[in-house]
Amino acid sequence: MTEKRIYLVGNPNCGKSTLFNQLTGLKQKTGNFSGVTVEKREGIFRTNGLDYTITDLPGTYGLGGVAEDKKIAYEVLLSRKPDEQVIYVLDALNLERGLQFLLQIIDMGIPTLVVLTMKDVLEKKRIQLDLEKLKKQIGLQFLLVNAKSGEGVETLKESITNPNQFQNCTRLWTWGTKEESFLKSAKQKLGIDSNEAEFFLSQSLKYLNEDPHFSEERYYLKFPEETKNWLRSQVIGKGFFFYYQEEMIHRSIFIKKVLAEAVTYPKSIPGSLDEKLDKVLLHPILGFICFFLLMGLLFQSLFSFAELPMDLIELGIGQIQSFTESFVSEGLLRSLLIEGIIGGVGSVVVFVPQIALLFLFIGILEESGYLARASFLMDRVMGKFGLSGKSFIPLLSSAACAVPAILGTRTIENKSDRFTTIMVSPLVMCSARYPVYILIVGTVFSFPPVFGIFNIQGFVLFSMFFLGMIVSFGFAYLFRKTVFKEDSSYFVMELPRYNLPSLKSLFHTVYGKVKSFLSTAGQIILYISVLLWFLSHFPAEYKNNQWETSPIETSYIGTIGKVMEPAIEPLGFDWKIGISILTSFAAREVMVSTLAVLYGSEENEESENLRSTLRTEKRADGSLVWTPLSGLSLLVFFAFASQCMSTLAVTKKETGTIFWPAVQFLYMTVLAIASSFLIFQLGKILGFS
Amino acid sequence: MTIQDLKIGQIAEIVSLDSKKLSKPMLTELLELGFFPGAEITLKNKSPLLGKMVCVLSGTTIALRIGDGESIQIKIKSI
Fold first, then answer.
1. Cβ atoms of A324 and A334 closer than 8 Å
2. Cβ atoms of residues A103 and A172 within 8 Å
């Protein structure tokens, strides 16, 4: 069976992903492009005994960008094998911009088939498109498809199997007269006749002209020394306009000419629904009201809808554990399996419903076109802290988990903005902090409701969320003013048309995100929880044909806890809390289970049992360990400390060095220790306990 | 004049982008979204409270900060 590779290329919001899902169905896998973490979606499409691997390249507007996802699209196309082809997805309502990128693809000499999407909208808006004229002018095959309903997809599938449908044409647009005549003579002198070689030549010319956008040396370096010298002597100082900007202008002239012939717009465009919606949603007051209502609804449902599946998963994990118990005889292996492996992995799996829900909501907001409007509203606020509205989306998703949030910063073109967002995302209260906060708040703030209605515990939780947001904004400002000073923030964003999200593509997004969350976060937690299991059960002795493990007090981790106790005493913590802080370095929620093990009671943040044990815990001098003051200090510690291996791992991947995760870990830890110390010591001076 | 001076509904043609004032990533992004000399631009909405303006360029709606607009020179085409 032979296999062929086809790349799906196009602008963002052009319906590329929906088409990808239509073509490949469930035969998809996600991974990364080699060397970078930009998500790579691949699917198999099988027909007539032939396998076609379809790769969905990140949507970009052109090949000149520096954002990770743009760069990768460019690199992949550049290093493609000669027989690999491109399906170019063209949004019928954004023809001008889409054609601009298509012409760049043509210039690279890639065999291409064009698919026009948004057929339904085209009809609704009464825009007439003359496909035959387009085909003739561009010289490629054009197919009309409705990616959402699947109309035209069958024809597309047939076309894919026909190699004649993928055509290769020569550059369609022309440079200015001076540049064009030079190109002609240079091509003759150097014997250049293919599209691809001409692409290399024009890239070299832009390099020699020191184009601010496309001055890459590599094309130039491909030419022999003699040619390089000749090119230098011919180009430098001769006043040629070989620039990316110039290229785009000339392409645009060509595109305008084509469109004038092929497209007829209706005489008048009536006040559309889009405009009415924007009047409300982008309104400085009404817009914010809608925004906060939506966010409130989002968080409310996040926690209420996720509760049942989370309980079910916990129940299931318990079942698996007791099932294992009945099969494996008591001893080290059983303890490793049940506590180390199943328990450890289970602590991650339990967050899947919340993460799936969050991505479902974000998916709906994004596909409907609202997310761009939310960024629009938030930009002013973010701007005050040196960020742009684009950083708002990752910070919002941090409220579920910083890992996917950091992955989501890839769409931010401005590197300083992107790195700042990565550095401060983990300060936002994530779902892993919830179990910890609920345990602490429930233990130390067990007061009756104020005025009979205001629940102080709910208030504390809300304040913690607010605290996380404020501090992350504050640190964003600090990072922007000190380390990431270059390229002040800006905001340019397309406001896409409002759209009804497609169920199929939502399902695929959520499925893909959950899968990648489980594989990145899950693996690390597995290793760490096995290590923690070892540290909390060893040293062990082999006696009477079985292993006798140490109780936690005398285990390695217990010893470490005792050693570190003097260091954490000024923060108001005892050695048991110290250990739980150590174990929760891997993942915050581990704190609850550690305390449960230490106090030998049932493991559950809701359990009254563990709380009442904690409330009576005393120090050597007889004073209580868990007081409102030490509880507050612990809350603040967990709000700021960098206790998440997965976040650090993903920061390393996304920034490409070990340096930034190290900085992230250090600044967050120092902040946590300093704030806890201040709160506890000041509180003591003021006479609180 | 710059796009800051446009009134709502006015159609203009972009004359130049000030590459000294604009940062490189922003300039690239603007170009690829269609902001280049010769392109036709319409101001759709302006919201000083949010510091934003919304323009339409060849059928696409694009939002940007009013402050950044001073780097985009235009000439009015019609009213």
1. yes
2. yes
Phi, psi of A654 (to 5 degrees): -75, -30
H or E stretch including B53?
strand B52-57
Nearest-Cα distance to chain B for A61, in Å, is 6
The whole-angstrom separation of Cα A169 and Cα A166 is 10
Here the ipTM equals 0.91
Nearest to A248 among B29, B31, B59 (CB): B31
Tell how strand B60-65 and strand A492-494 pair up: antiparallel
Mean per-residue pLDDT over chain A, rounded: 81
Helical (H) or strand (E) element with A161: helix A153-161
Question: Exposed/middle/buried for A34, CB within 10 Å: 0-12, 13-18, 19+?
Answer: exposed
Does pLDDT of A32 surpass 60? Answer: no
Most confidently predicted of A60-74, A139-153, A501-515, B63-77 = B63-77
* 3-class state of residue B39 by DSSP: coil
B62 contact residues in A (CB cutoff 8 A):
492-495
**Homologous superfamily, domain A4-165:** P-loop containing nucleotide triphosphate hydrolases (3.40.50.300)
Alpha-carbon separation of residue A327 from A314, A526, A529 (angstroms)? 20, 22, 22
Residue among B44, B31, B30, B43 at smallest CA distance from A493: B30
Domain limits of chain B? 3-76
Q: Is the dihedral of CA A134, A138, A139, A143 positive or negative?
A: negative
**Any B CB within 8 A of A419 CB:** no
Residue A298 predicted with pLDDT over 80: no
Domain ranges of chain A: 4-165, 177-241, 281-434+483-527, 435-482+551-688
Residues A463/A636, Cβ–Cβ less than 8 Å: no
Q: pLDDT digits over A131-173, tens only?
A: 888 888 888 888 888 877 778 888 888 888 887 888 887 788 8
Closest CB from B26, B38, B39 relative to A490: B26
Distances (CA, A) of A563 to A64, A533, A576: 56, 19, 11
CATH classification for the domain delimited by B3-76, as one of 3.40.50.1820, 3.10.20.30, 1.20.210.10, 2.30.30.90? 2.30.30.90
> Is the pLDDT at A309 greater than 80, yes or no?
yes
The whole-number pLDDT of residue A387 equals: 87
3-state secondary structure at position A394: helix
Measure the CA–CA gap between A460 and A391, rounded to whole angstroms: 27
> A249 vs B34: CB contact, 8 Å cut-off?
no
- Tokens representing residue A567 in the block: 């260091």
pLDDT of A419 > 70? The answer is yes
The C-alpha atoms of residue A187 and residue A234 are separated, in whole angstroms, by: 13
CB contact residues (below 8 A), chain B span 20-79, against chain A = 22-34, 36-39, 45, 47, 49-52, 54, 58-65, 68
Q: How many Å lie between the alpha carbon of B28 and the closest alpha carbon of chain A?
A: 6
Model pLDDT, residue A268: 43
Binned at pLDDT 50, 70 and 90, residue A257 comes out as confident
pTM for the full predicted model: 0.69
Shortest alpha-carbon distance between residue A433 and chain B (Å): 33
Rounded Cα distance between A442 and A457, Å, is 7
Q: Which two tokens stand for residue A449?
A: 């409701």
Looking at residue A602, its pLDDT comes to 47
CA separation for the pair A102, A381 (Å, rounded): 37
A186: closest CA among A197, A176, A196?
A197
Alpha-carbon distance of A463 to A446, in angstroms, equals 17
Pairing state between β A492-494 and A50-56: unpaired
Single-letter amino acid code for the residue at A255: I
Which of A161, A202, A162 shows the shortest CA–CA distance to A182?
Answer: A202
Mean pLDDT in residue range A363-392 = 88
Cα dist from A132 to A52, A252, A263, whole Å: 28, 21, 11
Q: Give the residue carrying structure tokens 């949010």.
A: B50
